[in-house]
Amino acid sequence: MAVIPRSDLERALAQKGFREEGAGRDHRFWWFYHQSQKTHIFTKIPRGSGYRDYSDDLLIKVKQQLRLDTVQQLRDLVSCTMTEQDYIDHLEAKGLI
Amino acid sequence: MKWDLQDWVNYYVVEDRWSWLSNMLAGHPKVYEAGKLTDFLVCSACKGFFVTQEGHSCPGGQLLSFHDAKYDETVRRAFVHEWVGSVIYEPKGRFKEFQHCSAQVISHGFIESFCQKLLHNADSLLNEAIQLFEGGHHARAAFLALLAQEELVRMYWAHIEGVNSDGRFYQFPIKGCAPGFTFQRFYLALRGLRLKSWCYEKPFVEGLDMMDHDAKLAVVKIHTPFLTTSLQTPLVTLDHFSKYELLYGDVQRLPELLRYIDLDCRSGVLSTPDSGISQREAFDHIALTCGILHDWAEHGFWSWSFEYKRFIDHAQKRYQQFLDQYNGIQSEVFPKPRLTPGDKAILAFMESLEDLGDLIERRVVYPAQTPKGRLLTPVTIEIRHGKKYFFASIAKLEIVEEGETSEAAVKNCLDTLFQVLKSYENTPSEQLSKGASAHWKRLQVVAASSHGRHSTK
Fold first, then answer.
1. Contacts of B436 in chain A (CB under 8 A)
2. Which residues of chain A make contact with B388, given a CB cutoff of 8 A?
3. Which 73-92 residues of chain A touch chain B by CB within 8 A?
């Protein structure tokens, strides 16, 4: 499957209610905010050159962190097929927010 | 080659087989009643079993103790002879026709396919039972759940025959049959007769009467963690014929359903039972069957296949859904897991970790000081090997991180733990969602950040 560039992933996160926080030397944290409150859903994006593109292996991990069921859902999130509201609905359905 | 009593004696008298047999003998009613193995005696002349209290005196005979058998083959032989003589199964009636093929080996493939059929029968019966339950037909639903249990019990015993072809545990003597796999053994396993030798309720040779369904389950339950941990009280005793009449009111479907029922049809008499089955009883039976199906499904598939995993997942999901859907029913038999939303989230997180690759190690990290914080309690870190990366996860804290080596993954995972903790500490509490607050509490139990707001630095 096609890789997802890190920049696309971060852009999508910013558009879907995630806020960047606590940027360190080698990574950035992205926290999901819902109704102006910080939730416990987050992902850590490394800044190293080895992480410019996200292959399946890493996408599975991000999918896990974002509480999505499939990698395809993550791809939909990045490609904007899944809107922020869709994502919220998904998390609500799972009782996570 | 025909095996007879003496062959069986020669077989069991070998030392390592004796150690198994001595355990069996320890469960013999006479030994059981005597209380002590050392009180269990055999007469060297008449070869009879005795306990000290009986004061047996046989002309020329010597009472040899069970304890001596370990060191003395003569004594061992006397005990084995007596035991085999009392339990050897002598095929009768229609079993006789199979005697000529006593040495016939039943292939694993055959048993596997047979078990899978039983498993799928049980599965479809359970589906039907749940549908009936949802439609308010509780008695019929319970009946079908019981039939499904029958299938699973049979599957279990057939499976044991399959995996124990070389073992000694199930090599009970059958007249005319050599140890190992025989048609008779398999047939008996399918019929559940083997259970008689477990219970010692009746002598093994006493006819072909079937143990009833509940007696079977009572014995089998010791083999499944699900039942031993969950089942607190005995199952409701049910008679299939009676239930059938109650449920269906006629006997038209009887032949069709009899293929599921492990009964001696010759003596079955239909009669109207005193009472029906309540919703709670039906719920108990279905929930129990769902649980058994999930626990025992593995016996239906020898190979770790995709189909197997899918079936297990499906059984687990259905069990959980059923319990959740009827959460209001107060079960007396079956404790329902009460999961908080937080527990459910952790459970879902743990289950999805499998997608990250093969689990290669479980490492317990003990309380320790790290540059970013301090572990207050041990944490279990699971390390998985994906296609390119290693992944380390702390399931109960819902944290997963990757690394190019397993060590890097673990370090990254712990770093994240402390960073997340610090992030919570730096966020005003009113800005934390309910889920985040709960997550923070879980983290606080496990770790303390070095640079939190309470830090002196």
1. 37-40
2. 55, 57
3. none
Q: With bands split at pLDDT 50, 70 and 90, how would you rate the model's confidence at B196?
A: very low
Is B433 close to A37, i.e. CB distance below 8 A? yes
**Which of B344, B389, B438 lies closest to A57 in CB terms?**
B389
Asked if residues B84 and B173 have their Cβ atoms less than 8 Å apart, the reply is yes
Buried b (16+ CB within 10 A) or exposed e, B3-35: beeebbbebbbeeeebeebbebbeebebbeebe
CB B427 to CB A38 under 8 A?
yes
Neighbour count for residue B45 (Cβ, 10 Å):
14
Q: Which helix (H) or strand (E) is B35 found in, with range?
A: none
Could you give the ipTM of this predicted complex? 0.94
pLDDT digits (tens, 9 = 90+) for B215-242: 444 444 444 333 333 332 222 233 333 3
A64 touching chain B per CB within 8 A: yes
How many Å lie between the alpha carbon of A12 and the closest alpha carbon of chain B?
20
Q: What is the pLDDT of residues B58-112, one digit of tens each?
A: 777 777 777 777 777 887 887 788 777 766 766 655 445 444 444 455 666 777 7
